[in-house]
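Worked example 2:
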Amino acid sequence: MITANAYHVPVLLKESVDGLDIQPDGVYVDVTFGGGGHSKEILSRLGKKGHLYSFDQDADAESNIVADERFTFVRSNFRYLTNWMRYYGVERINGLLGDLGVSSHHFDDETRGFSFRFDAPLDMRMNKRAGQTAADILNNYPEEQLADVFYLYGEMKNARRLAKAIVDSRKERAIQTTADLGASIEPLMRSDREKKDLARIYQALRIEVNHEMDALRDMLKGATQLLGDGGRLSVITYHSLEDRIVKNVMKAGNAEGHVEQDFYGRISSPYRLVNKVTVPTDEEQQQNPRSRSAKLRIAEKI
C-alpha cells in the first residue's frame, strides 16, 4: 500500500485549512484528495456532525482513503462537483479546498509519463480508465493544433517550431515514450533552458490530456453555486494559467475576470477576498521543492 506521505506531501497544509475557518458541524469538500493530507487535517477539526467529501479521479488515490463515518470519497473528476453533491443530497457547503496541479506521486511514478526524468510511455492521464494519452495527442493532432497547445498551456514562444519538429519526427516513427519526445525536439533545446522548457512542454501536454482548465472553470462555477453565505474557498495554484482563473473568480465571480459594477462603481462579486496571496515559508520550500511555485488564495462567499 502507498502511504500518504510517500504518495504526496501536502503543500501549505495549515494555512489552507485555516483559511476554511472550519465550523465543527459544517460540510466541506476537498476536490483534490491525493494522499489525503489536507482531508485528514479537515477531519481533525470537524465535530461528530460534520462531513467531508473528497474527490479524486486517480484510482491510486484510493489507497489513502480514510476510514471515518464523517468521510465520503468520490472517485470522479472535480468538474462534476455539483452533480455529485446533488447525488448526495447536499444543497450547501461551508467550504471547499483545492490543491491544484500534479501530486508528487504522479511526478515520481516512472510508469505514467508525467516527468521527463524517466523513460516511460507518454500517458499523463489522471484517470487511467478514459481519454486520450499524451502520445495520442503528439501523434494525431494537426501541426497547428499542437502549436496552440504548446503556446496556450506551456507559454512556449517557439511553439510552432516545436510542433513542426514533432510532426516531422512522427512521419518517421511514432512518438510513444518520453525518450521519443525528447529526441524529436532535442535540436530546439538550449542547454541553459532545457529543464525549464521541458517542464513547460510537459505541463502543456498534461493540461491538454486532462482538460485541466475546463475542469477548473467548471469546478469553481460549481463551488460558487454551492457555497453558503460565509462559506470559504481555499485554493492552491502552481502556474499562472490556473492562478489567473482562480484570481478572476474570487475578484469578479467569473473565470474570465469580467467585472460588473453597481451604480456607485463598486465591483459586484459573490466573494470577499480573505487574503492577498500566501506563499510557503523558506523552510517549507526547502523541505518540499514542489511548493516553491505555490500560491494560496482564500475568499469568502457573501
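The CA atoms of residues 213 and 264 lie 34 Å apart. The first strand starts at residue 27 and ends at 30.
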